[in-house]
């Protein structure tokens, strides 16, 4: 199987988008510190404190090049991609996110304690503090989207419980697994449930949803049901086609039963060694 090589514009996209957001915060914080009379050396240190480290694009290209081999399976490609996603998540969480948190705390302290600043300087500090908090929120959402730490640390039950708790409708979650599946299958199951529940909230007009996950011999069975209006179609624009593609990446299957008037039941079967 041939694997298409990623162009530089694609490989560097995530780093570029995050770096622009971080630079806004660092520029504002530098202006705030300068206006407050801090030395230029301190201003420069603060401005570079939140700079995001570049992605290891050379290592990523090497990994992709290794996969460009006729004997490599689709599952191996998915495994490699998932491993790289987890690495990026750890780097962002342990590096840039912590620096942004520290920056926001310091700006908050400056705003609270430096009460004799001119109005212009205080406005700059307020804006920098707001930008830093927004950057933290955006980065946190990105990290969760890449690979939530709670999934790796505690598994599907804990990770999906967090998603269910944040939804505007009640969700009954039942996870019955004697052992954890492989990280790749576990990640696919997590994102399938996450995206399916998002579709329920956005499109189904449902009052509740139920999620059941269990292992049947060599299969991980995932069922998402809701009492909404029904009429869901994998060929429509409800995101089900994307779910089918994600499930198919690990040789799984997805079926949808959604008569007009409801209910809708999405059933996913993922290969999972017993």
Please report which band the strand proportion falls in: under 5%, 5-15%, 15-25%, 25-35%, 35-45% or over 45%.
5-15%
Q: How is the main sheet built?
A: 5 strands, mixed
Share of helical residues = 55-70%
C-alpha geometry:
globular
Instruction: Count helical runs.
Output: 10
Please give the number of β-strands: 5
Please trace the helix and strand order, writing H or E for each element.
HHHHHHHHEHEEHEE
Quote the average pLDDT.
76
Secondary-structure-based class equals alpha+beta
Summed up, the domain count is: 2
Q: Describe the strand arrangement of the main beta sheet, using strand numbers.
A: 1-2-3-5-4
Low-confidence stretches: 1-29, 31-52
Radius of gyration: 23 Å
Distance between the termini: 28 Å
Oligomer: single chain
Please give a structural write-up.
The protein folds into 2 domains: 8-147, no CATH class; 151-271, Heat Shock Protein 90, CATH 3.30.565. The two termini are 28 Å apart. It is globular and about 65 Å long. It has a 5-stranded mixed sheet, with helices on one face. α2 packs antiparallel against α6 (119-146), α4 packs antiparallel against α5 (74-113) and α5 (74-113) packs antiparallel against α6 (119-146). With 274 residues, it is an alpha+beta fold. The chain is built from 10 helices and 5 strands. Helix content is 60%, strand content 13%.
